[in-house]
């Protein structure tokens, strides 16, 4: 669960701040002058952070295994594919929040506005089944809920891909929907 929380906070915050900082400093004008499409620009901004997220996931997994003796019963490949999907989902949220924010302070505030419900409604702090129905419904929309289930299933139960699919497809759908929202709000011109 801690891996998901760390990845959520780091990925959303880094992406959101990086893009709003470019807009504040005026370097976004240079980027807008290129013939690159919005999807290309956003993808180019996401790729380096995917590598950072996977490095963070590796460090967390090594610490979990060697320091805290957390067992790994499932496939390491499944674990990294899951982490990759989760990192991509959080990066698209960061891109979207940076498209909405006017400055870095707003980006940080939007990040916390996104981060806190993730912690409270994902099953990280409180048992998911013990929450009211409306909270479970909201928690089911958030990627951290599905990532927690996936990681616990892989690490502790040794779940195979068939067992993981009910929590993989919501991550994919969330990523596509949020990236679409980011593309809609992406500004081709500076105001």
Description:
- With 191 residues, the chain is mostly helical.
- Helix content is 79%, strand content 0%.
- It has helices at 2-25, 28-32, 38-66, 76-100, 104-121, 133-141, 143-157, 161-185.
- Helix 3 (38-66) crosses helix 4 (76-100) and helix 7 (143-157) packs antiparallel against helix 8 (161-185).
- The mean pLDDT is 86.
The number of E-state strands comes to 0
The structure class reads mainly alpha
Query: Helix amount, in percent?
Result: over 70%
**Shape assignment:** globular
Rg for CA atoms: 17 Å
DSSP strand (E) fraction?
under 5%
Instruction: Output mean pLDDT.
Output: 86
How widely separated are the two ends? 41 Å
Largest sheet, in brief, is:
none
Low-confidence blocks of residues: none
* SSE string: HHHHHHHH
What count of helical segments does DSSP give?
Answer: 8
Key terms:
191 residues, 0% strand, mainly alpha
